[in-house]
Write a structure and sequence with these properties.
2 copies of one chain form a homodimer. Chain A is of the alpha+beta class and about 130 residues long. Chain A contains 4 helices and 6 strands, in the order H-H-H-H-E-E-E-E-E-E. Chain A has a domain of about 80 residues: Arc Repressor Mutant, subunit A (Orthogonal Bundle). A 3-stranded mixed sheet of chain A has the order 4-3-6, with no helix packed on it. Chain A has a two-stranded antiparallel ribbon with strand order 1-2. In chain A, helix 3 packs across helix 4. The radius of gyration of chain A is 16 Å and the shape is globular. At the A-B interface, strand 3, strand 4, strand 5 and strand 6 of A face strand 4, strand 5 and strand 6 of B. Chain A binds a DNA duplex (25 and 25 nucleotides) through helix 4.
DNA sequence: CTTTGTGCAAATTCTTTGCACCAAA
DNA sequence: TTTGGTGCAAAGAATTTGCACAAAG
């Protein structure tokens, strides 16, 4: 399915800019920051602004099209893959890796309704070990 | 066990300031921010600086005495309870709740060594539902 | 005296806001 | 012609850094 179609399904108007940004995120599973997305797309979209990247990430995240990863304190990262999986942050090289995991059996108290569940680990990756 | 003893066990010199901060965190299971800790302790410790709170949180977190919760994008929260449990952020009232959970069976790739595992949910709490 | 802890002020960095202009329905 | 999207510059907020002084071994 195309990025435009996915956006539309979520009630988001698929502007050129939004499609370009979402496309980038779907094709680069590196959990980029807003700045990395901006820097990567700038050459082909000279008028693109960081504000628009932030606007778009916030919109897509709110509509559940992407996930915002807050594993690092300093900056948010983004992931177009919204299937259940975990994130591993290497505290040496700073890279974020995906890993397979089940959802744990969580005892969420009565009356609490979660919409997002995240699992993450921090440690050292294979290359840094 | 006293806070001073716990700090010592982790190789951290239990200065008055560190013990005071760690004590506060042990007694207030509200997942406070650095600013909240600073504001709460300031009246009794007029010379305390926010820098020291940040220094202390970073040190205690690095030594595994406390956990840094990065469920919110804007600011870090801290938790003196390092037993396995999940965190639930209510996107309406902003409070962070604890919930019981098992560790999921995670397929961390060969060669990756995690030191911290976090499970969190975002949604709406009982009061806001 | 030598290392470690604390604290002020300034700097840095990520993110948001206000506002104006442009584009689309 | 009204709403929604984009972008610049400025503001805001959390955290870090540089440096100096104080305290502890």
């Amino acid at each position: 399915m195309t990025s435009a179609e996915i956006l539309q399904q979520h009630g988001i108007r698929p502007s050129l800019t939004r499609v370009m940004i979402y496309d980038y995120l779907r094709e680069h599973r590196t959990h980029p920051t807003a700045d990395e997305i901006y820097t990567a797309l700038s050459p082909n979209a000279p008028t693109l602004s960081k504000t628009t990247v932030y606007n778009t990430m916030k919109l897509l995240s709110a509509e559940g099209v992407i996930k915002t990863i807050t594993i690092e304190e300093q900056q948010a990262r983004f992931d177009a893959c919204i299937d259940t999986h975990g994130h591993f942050l290497c505290k040496d090289c700073g890279k974020v890796f995906d890993f397979d995991t089940e959802l744990p059996s969580m005892k969420i108290p009565e009356g609490f309704s979660p919409t997002v569940t995240e699992i993450y680990c921090i440690g050292r990756c294979k290359s840094c070990n």
